[in-house]
Amino acid sequence: MLEIRPSCENCNKALLPDSLEAMICTYECTFCVDCVTGVLHNVCPNCGGGFEKRPIRPAPMLLKHPASKKVVYKPVSNL
Hints:
With 79 residues, this protein is α+β, with helices and mostly antiparallel strands. Helix content is 15%, strand content 10%.
């Protein structure tokens, strides 16, 4: 099950569980669409993979399986 992390790893922008701006790689590294397109050029700095839009978990299921509160903040440098 996806963690649904709360923010962009690069710019720390909040990404609510229903955000249409959240992008993830196969390891669930989470970035906002602006960082994916403008900074990372669709290449994950952690694993080298590409990104897809993060699916939205339906609200009733968020009650049963809440989104993560774990913030991963590792700004990308020298790209």
